[in-house]
Amino acid sequence: MDLDDVKISRKKPIYPVVPALKKYLKKYQRYAKFPISYADLLTFQETLPVLDKNGNDTFWETPLYPPYMQDQLYEGLKIVYAQLKASGNTRIVEHKYIDRVEYCAFGNTRPFRIRIVNRLNDVYDYFYIKQADASRIYGLELEEILSPNQVNYLVDSGTLVEEHIVGIPGDTFAKGRMHDPDYNLTRIAKEFVKFNERCIITLLGDMRAYNYVMQITPDFDDFQFRIRAIDFDQQFYEGNPKVYMPQFFKENLPFVKLAMDHLTDKTVLQYQQEERSSIVHRVRSERHRIADLRDASKLQQLSAEENIKRLREGYASFFRNPAYYKCKTMTDIVELNVKNVIRSVTL
User: Fold this and answer.
1) pLDDT tens across 40-52, in order?
2) Which DSSP state fits 31?
3) Which residues, other chains included, contact 140 with Cβ-Cβ below 8 Å and sequence gap of 6+?
4) Mapped to the 3 state alphabet, what secondary structure does 35-96 carry?
5) How far is the C-alpha of 251 from the C-alpha of 249, rounded, in Å?
6) What is the pTM of this model?
7) Among candidate residues 339, 337, 293, the one with its CA nearest the CA of residue 318
8) Where are the domains of the chain?
């Protein structure tokens, strides 16, 4: 298979938060009422480009608001941060101020990135405000349920607020940090195999190196690595199976080469099986939640019919399992993936 034949739809529609999803979000404490909305942040008249330290365009822009409007927006953003971080306890923002707001028109959900600073010690944090896209929300929930990672986000009608996920961008890590002499390259390759497996099962697409981060944790005798997705815009929308397999993106070639150099077919299978076993444990402990998520997502159209048809045929061929031909929605495909994982672990 060719590394550069993976095509991504650039105009994936934004799917609204329908009543069934809203009910699910309320049940699991993901729904809130914000003092400001995503639409409020769009009321700027002009922007200034944000450049990196080398003067290169970052594709982010600084929106300019009238002073009276900026004060109101920034105060609302502090309350939103308190809702995200402390269940609305505004004491945590008494000594904080909004340092800057940045806007990116490049992504599907056209996010705002907010930097908030503690004036007592200059410690800062980021959070994001985006258009509430139902498929993205389902991706965040699947990440919470089926991956080893926790995600923190809240939704209010058409507004999605997400916590910043800390880590080194995958492309930056691959270019400048991967071959640190203190790092065990086999551990990095192992983590990429596990990440690839999770994406295949949960239908998390477009995991090119700049759409995930590497988290590095020093252990008592080595370093541990964790790859975390930071972009869920392409959650179960595309019809090409390779979109859900990070190994086929040319941007991930350094990680693929690392796996080829440091792992054997036998160890790859071992790590895939380890990840499947972990997923089975998570499904068993969260079986009611994942059933509720399935029931909510089945009531909403989340992809084009031709994409669903192409993907079920592709997965039927990839897994050599004709049961995929019976899938009518992307939710059906994810559900069958999970059932197959359970069967493979319990055999």
Assistant:
1) 999 998 999 888 8
2) B
3) 151, 153, 162, 232
4) CCCHHHHCCCCEEEEEECCCCCEEEEEEEECCHHHHHHHHHHHHHHHHHHHHCCCHHHHCCE
5) 5
6) 0.92
7) 337
8) 19-163, 168-346
